[in-house]
Model the fold of this input.
Amino acid sequence: MNGDTQGRRVSRLPQFRRALGELIVVGGASLAMIFWIIPAQTSSGGELGLSPQLVPTVCSAAIGLLTLFRFIAALVSTPAPEPGDVAPLHYAFSIIVATAAGIAGIAFWGWPIGGAILSLLVLLVLGERRPLMLAAMPVLVAVLLFLIQKTGI
Amino acid sequence: MENILLGASDAFSLAAVTAVFGGILLGYIVGVVPGLSRPAALAVAVPLTYYMTPIAAIAFLVGVTKASAAGGATGAIMLNTPGEPSSAATCYDGYPLARAGKAAKALKIALYSSVFGDTVSTLVLIALAMPLASFALKMGPVEMTAVMIFALTFIAALSGTSLSKGLVSGIFGILLATVGLDPESATPRLTFGMIELFDGIPLVSATVGMLAFTEMLVQAEAYIRARKSGEEIQRMELLPDDNGVSLKEVREVAPTAVRSTLVGIAAGIIPGLGPTIGAFLSYVVAKKFAKPGDRFGEGDIKGVAATEAADNAVLPASFIPLFAIGLPGSVSAAILVAAFMMHGVVPGPLIFEQHPRLMYGIYVSMLVASLCMLIVGRVGLTFFARIGSVPAVIIIPVVIVFCTLGSFLEHHAMFSVYAMMVLGVVGYFMQRYGYSVVTFLIGFVIGPLFELSLRQSIIVTNHQPEAVLQHPIAIAFLVMAVVAVIFFVKPAGKLAQAQRAGG
Done:
């Protein structure tokens, strides 16, 4: 436990957990970039200027070092209070899934039908259940996308 | 004088004025709809001018270009969806203003600042085309590298309370910008065998995904939570008492608009910088000049004025090197070269000797276009300001559909849509864990230009760093970069300390 400047007692544990999570995810990703992805996905290049690997490697190393710095800073600094009201992840996740399904619809059936499916799925995820709304919006979206497609934009 | 009067009479002919007005209307639509980019609209519009007179043709294209810059602010303010990448910086203060019920005020400030920046920049073009163009000629790869290093210091300026997180985001932007063909050896880099990635990650997909799609995810989250908990769902209602622009506000905003216009003009004259970097830079400068009580990032009219004045000042200024030495300062200016040549005019030092009447006609048409932009924007504003009061349950699906459509239109490829979605999800998680999407975009925009000019510099200087000493402009920008880092990092550290102290 530790105290903040206003005298409240704030646990160090959540900050440590968050910093450790960041170190594992971001630091791990930068290590994977440096030792695996960049060497596998770039050629060594010519001898005229810079190697194609240089900028991505420097960027990945900088991200890794900054994340390590953040982790060390989290260990020694005064813990800040946790951000309070964070929405559950599955709300956004459900919209992402609906969008992905709608985009798949566009890829398979074209813009008017796919766009209508996309808007319908998003409406359903948002909790919309009024039949008129569920019918009207996809139709309007389909007509709009059909017209855009027809004009050749 | 005779040529000026003859040019003006051409510019005020019915055909030319109608062309300007048509161009402004088309440009405004292009600007408002995300994904319909200015260069793409210009490329489509060039063949339309084939049967027009040279003055009407150029006036039409100038109208398209100018209005698309001004129209881009509408989506940025109302939906956090920039119509153009150069309007991305307008989201930072424009969207919070709209959410606070001041959408009409934000749109008015954006419009007036756009017209101001555009008009002043046009006047600078008319007065100083020749002397300023010689400066553009001195900008070689070494100077451009120094400019880009200076520009990268903006990341520190916009990092907010956590400098380290801001830097991580900015560097991540630079890293993602390296995807594509290597600029020197033309070998694929981080493309995972996908041909679609050879041109890099599409810029519109990145801006639409990171700003608009991410915002819709956040909005949807808030909407679902409010609905499930039975809370009242907030709408962006207009506050009737606080949507005008008072004289006091004009006086407050004026210095910012003037400074930002100058920044925009500088970004236009230097070939390669363009409106996106100009808008970001002017936002940083405006933030640095903030007075106590200014609320940049939370809905400050100065933030809107800064980005819009600079964005619109870039285009006329980018004509300075084009008209004077034949060097286009932006993609739009490069496309206009094609239009000039189609009508038998070759931009360059001889243009004023060979076509004086046409050139003065174009200048006057550019000023007419500024006036038309004000009229069209002011009329449209009444309608656009109502978008915010549309219920979230309608806005969210429609904007998500437009996000997919907008990203598709950039390259007419589904790959851009997939990229938009992936980057939107990445942006959502970045926002959720406090990583700045703004600094990511700065890194993403500046990264490729920086790498290219750095590589060219290394070749030009034959791997000898001391050769920089022979480039005084580059040294000046490097000194400015060092000063800027000290200037930006110090307050960021203080702000973080204050936040920690305040809990």
User: Anything to note?
Assistant: The mean pLDDT of chain A is 85. DSSP finds five helices and two strands in chain A. The CA atoms of residues 92 and 125 of chain A lie 10 Å apart.
